[in-house]
Amino acid sequence: MHTRHSTERCQQRGIQPDVVDIILDYGARKFRHGAEVLFMDHRARRAAKAALGARRFARISDRLNTYLVVSNDGDIITAAPRKRRLKFG
């Protein structure tokens, strides 16, 4: 479920719903500052490619450099393009 904030951010940043769905389904998960951050690492990309098929994955793969921040109750707080490596420490 999107919050109003995440809906606005996705629209502003051109993040399409199919990208959000793929990240939710296959993305790697890390906890940071009390929320879960989902993103596509190498393992997640391999799993998505296997599940979606090479052709469909090829059409969407260039848009998967995105991360989502999800609350403990499952609401998407925000989404943004990933321009640098995410640091968890």
Structure in a nutshell:
With about 90 residues, the protein is α+β, with helices and mostly antiparallel strands.
Features:
89 residues, alpha+beta, four-stranded antiparallel sheet, 4 strands
What level of helicity do the residues show?
40-55%
Q: Please state roughly what percent of the residues sit in beta strands, choosing from under 5%, 5-15%, 15-25%, 25-35%, 35-45% or over 45%.
A: 15-25%
Q: Can you tell me the residue ranges where pLDDT is under 50 for at least 5 consecutive residues?
A: none
Main sheet specs: 4 strands, antiparallel
Oligomer category: single chain
How many domains make up the 3D coordinates? 1
Q: What does the radius of gyration come to? A: 13 Å
Order of helices and strands: HHEEHHEE
Estimated structural class: alpha+beta
Helix count from the secondary structure assignment = 4
The averaged pLDDT comes out at 93
What's the β-strand tally? 4
What is the straight-line distance between the termini?
28 Å
Based on Cα principal axes, name the global outline: globular
Strand order of the largest sheet: 1-2-3-4
